[in-house]
Amino acid sequence: MLSNIQVRNFAIIDEVEIEFTPGMTVLTGETGAGKSILVDAMGLVLGERGGSGLVRTGTRRAEFTAEFDLKDLPEARHWLEEQMLDLDGECILRRVISADGRSRAFINGNNVPLQSLKTLGEMLLDIHGQHFHQSLASRGVQRTLLDYFGGLVDLAIATRNAYEDWRTLADKRDALEAANSDRNAKLDLLRFQVGELEALDLQPGEVDSLSVERSKLMNSGRLAEGAGAALLQLYEGEPGNAHSLIAEAAHTLESLTAIDESLEPVSQLLTEAGIQVTEAADALRRYGEGLDMDPARREFVENRLDAVANIARKHRVEPEDITGLHADLVEQLSDLEHAEERGAELATAVEDAAAAYLQTAKSLSAGRRKAATRFSAAVTDAMSGLGMPGGVFEARLAVREDEEPRPSGVDDIEFRISANPGQAPMPLSKVASGGELSRMSLAIQVIASDGSLIPTMVFDEVDSGVGGGVAEMVGKRLHELGQSRQVFCVTHLPQVASLGDNHFRIMKVSDGKSTRTGITLLSAGERVEEIARMLGGVEITQRTRDHAAEMLASGSVPADKRA
After folding, report:
1. What is the dihedral of CA 321, 322, 328, 332, to 10 degrees?
2. Neighbour count for residue 58 (Cβ, 10 Å)
3. Is the pTM higher than 0.70?
4. Mapping DSSP to helix (H, G, I), strand (E, B) and coil, where does residue 433 land?
5. CATH number at residue 29
6. Which is it for strands 92-98 and 515-521: parallel, antiparallel or unpaired?
7. What is the DSSP string of 329-348?
8. Nearest-CA neighbor of 144 among 393, 387, 409?
């Protein structure tokens, strides 16, 4: 679960740090106060894209830090261990967005790609936005929700992986078949290219070593001159080369050590220095003697590098990639020369991969059918409690007639709804009422979440478009969900807010020069005032406060406030 979050210099937030607890936490505030800012911050710390416009005006960067308790999340702990990012059971995520648009991500203090933050974040927290119903019409979204509900995510991933295996082999088979259509011409070309590369016989690392040698050959005169000058200074030059001067100093001190033994270490250092100078002089002699100033060798190196460059240019690769190119062309030639055998092998492999895919996809389909029955019944039941009595929801599956593998499996999935008794279920995309679609969206999200392993759910004004008794049922459903996991709910409905286990108020504060957002955990008395504000608007009466207190005490809406 999410233990705490820290946000600095984000939008109109200067700095907030909030501790969280299990259960249902509600976030309320005036319109425009920034209720969704905290949700946006959660999304950013979990890897969502964000630009420089998010940074508070006048500051250099926005910072987001979130700490999660992974006690009941073995998958997340395993992922951290695999990535070598685990730290004594801790999970601290950090995101920094600079005013110039640059972004950095950290997991347990380690700098990571943003995608890593997103990958881990998907195991920790699930955000349902207020406009989710707009994407609910997508077949892909519907399929994902059903798989979550049915606990079929791993099987869906296995199906997609089986599809990818089949696709890779099928592409190779198709490429070989296409090559066979003009086999003789391709054979001639490949044999020529392979022969050309074999004649070049480029060795691994040869380009780098030749480049170094060329630089040495081109500067051999300068190198010889410099080494000779250094040798004269050290040993061979007269008068006063380094070796003779050191020897004279050593001789002088040697006679003095008989008088003062404290000079012995200095004398020893000079003796060692003389030995090192002698060794350096020997090394310089050998270096000078070994310098290759042969014009023929220089010409050979230049011609060799030119030949390599020409081949690389012809094949549009870097010189360093020629060795890999050679291996690829040899494989292509071998495949084409043995096309019949290779074709038969690939055909068998494609059939085996298709069979493996079909087996996995059919298992997934069977699981989806069972899940669809339960999902349809659960959502239909929830509809009556959301102001749509007699409504029917169907998660309809249709198996495709063709058995061509597809990443999503063999099923076409479509959610259908009948909002009124006697009305035939219609696709969600054709539901006319925005309020009905909003309520359906909420029911589907909450019920689908029952199959999710993600411990923290965030609902950002998903209750928009409902009110009265329906709002009360929405709140109860979210509160029930909060008994088994951590639930955050941004809401403008007092019926929902009164059912929260914890209550934060979002307020916009201005000193005339700047505006900032403050977030406060409300006490019992402060909750009464906030619920009263949500009930009564600008003028809060004692009667409104009594209603608010009654709602908080009973966890339901007073009779005279029911819709």
Report:
1. 150
2. 8
3. no
4. coil
5. 3.40.50.300
6. unpaired
7. HHHHHHHHHTHHHHHHHHHH
8. 409
- Quick one: tokens of 118? 């997103």
Range in 107-111, 182-186, 225-229, 404-408 with the lowest mean pLDDT: 182-186
The answer to whether residue 348 is domain-embedded is no
CB 42 within 8 A of CB 68: no
In a domain, 218, yes or no: no
Strand, coil or helix: 69: coil
- Amino acid at site 379: V
Under 8 Å between Cβ of 42 and 66? yes
Kindly state the tokens that stand for 24: 């249902």
CA distances to 323, 324, 326 from 334, rounded to whole Å, are 17, 15, 12
Does the pLDDT value for residue 50 go beyond 50?
yes
Tokens for 111, please give them: 């700098």
CA distance 97 to 105: 9
CA–CA distance, 358 with 158 (Å, rounded to integer): 11
Q: In the β-sheet with 392-399, what is the strand arrangement from edge to edge?
A: 392-399, 411-418, 426-427
DSSP structural state of residue 302: H
- How far, in Å, CA of 321 to CA of 313, rounded? 11
How far apart, in Å, are the Cα atoms of 465 and each of 12, 485, 493? Answer: 27, 25, 10
Report whether 498 contacts 551 (CB < 8 A): yes
Q: At 5, is the secondary structure helix, strand, or coil? A: strand
Query: Is residue 556 over pLDDT 80?
Result: no
Determine the Cα–Cα distance for residues 137 and 441; give it in Å rounded to an integer.
Answer: 10
Token pair belonging to 289: 């003697």
**366-371 contact pairs (CB < 8 A, 24+):** 367/150, 367/152, 367/155, 368/146, 368/147, 368/150, 368/152, 368/397, 368/409, 368/411, 368/413, 369/397, 370/150, 371/146, 371/147, 371/149, 371/150, 371/151, 371/152, 371/395, 371/451
325 domain-assigned: no
Spatial neighbors of 74 by CB under 8 A, at least 6 apart, are: none
Unique residue bearing structure tokens 């592409």: 171
Report whether pLDDT(407) > 70: yes
Residue range(s) defining the domain that contains residue 46: 1-130+461-563
466 inside domain = yes
Reply yes or no: is the peptide bond before residue 239 cis, omega within 30 of 0.
Answer: yes
* 186 burial via Cβ count (<10 Å: 0-12, 13-18, 19+): middle
Number of domains in the chain: 1
Better pLDDT: 94 or 281: 94
Ramachandran area for residue 205 (φ above 0: left; ψ -120 to 50: alpha; else beta): left
d(CA 20, CA 36): 17
Cα dihedral 238/240/246/251 (nearest 10): 90
